[in-house]
């Protein structure tokens, strides 16, 4: 449906498909509202994905950034990590970071 016509009594619908398969080759048709069957569209994905924060392991130069669930101190890869709270706020995990843990990234990719 692309538009509502005549104060809600008709709908302008657009048909999909090859032009030669359409009735009289016409793509847009006005249809009386009562002749339509309207079905609700389901949400694409209602499952919330956990929001991972950044945890760190290793020393300063070899630091590895892990995906950590908020309030925990174990990376997704099961590595013990130090969460990085900054004034009560923690950094979101960035899988594209140069220092991102490859196992955490792989587990994130396989779980999504
Ligand atoms: Zn990790």
What report would you give on this structure?
By secondary structure, the protein is mainly β. The protein has two domains: about 5-35, no CATH class; about 55-110, no CATH class. Helix content is about 10%, strand content about 25%. It has one helix and eight strands. The chain has one helix at about 100-110, and strands at about 5, 10-15, 30, 55, 65-70, 80-85, 85, 90. The strands form three sheets. Strands 1-2-3 form a three-stranded antiparallel beta sheet, with no helix packed on it. Strand 4 and strand 5 form a beta hairpin. The radius of gyration is 26 Å and the shape is elongated. The chain starts with a strand and ends with a helix. The mean pLDDT is about 80. It binds zinc ion. The site of zinc ion has 8 residues, from helix 1.
Q: Multimeric state of these chains? A: single chain
* Cross-sheet strand order for the largest sheet: 1-2-3
Q: Radius of gyration from the CA trace?
A: 26 Å
Strand content: 25-35%
Largest sheet: 3 strands, antiparallel
Count of structural domains: 2
Along the chain, the helix and strand elements come as EEEEEEEEH
Number of helices: 1
Write the SSE topology.
Elements: E1 3-5, E2 10-14, E3 28-32, E4 53-57, E5 64-68, E6 82-83, E7 85-86, E8 89-90, H1 102-111
Bound molecules: zinc ion.
Residues 66, 75-77, 79, 101, 103-104 line the site of zinc ion.
List the keywords.
112 residues, three-stranded antiparallel sheet, 1 helix, mainly beta, binds zinc ion, 2 domains
